[in-house]
Structures are given as structure tokens and as C-alpha cells.
Design a protein that fits this description.
This protein folds into 2 domains: about 45 residues, no CATH class; about 50 residues, no CATH class. By secondary structure, the protein is mainly alpha-helical. The protein contains 5 helices and no strands. Helices cover about 75% and strands about 0% of the residues.
Length: about 100
Amino acid sequence: MFAFKERMADAIQNQPKNTTHEETVRELAFEQIVASSLQDSKERKTTSNHEMNGRLRAEENRMNERSSKAVPFRSPPDLARNNHNQQVICHEVFGNN
């Protein structure tokens, strides 16, 4: 615990004099993230590039599937062809007026 407090005190001492509280807290958080990441690396608690690429592709596919189910955008001239569509849009934009 003492080493942790020493690291935090050093991080605060090394900040410029005009540093805001938010910047100091951000710097302390960054110090903790780096320390935690280095510890994970030493303990081999890491994710391989191959596995991470697979995760990212799976997430990208999931997002693409979700967006393909979205209602396609229709341009204003398409909407103007049908008075009913204009009423629906007015209702959605302005409510029950």
C-alpha cells in the first residue's frame, strides 16, 4: 500500500502548477491503468491479436446485422408522393397536434 501511495504522490508532485483537479485525477487514473496493464502482462492475462481480431469481427457483424434491419432512409420526394406518409411524419415530429 505504501508503494501505491508513493506512486500517487509522485504523480501529483510531477504535475505542472497550473493543472486542474480534473487533469490530476485523469493522470492518476492513467497511472493506475498503466500499472494494472503491466501487471496483467507479467501474469500473462492478455488476449492474443488473433483472438481480439475475432472478437472485433464478431461485433462488427452483429452491428451490421442490426443496421440491416433498420428502416431504410427515404428521400423527401419519395415521401411527398403519398399524403399519408406526410401525415405520419408530421405526427411523429409534432405529436398529437
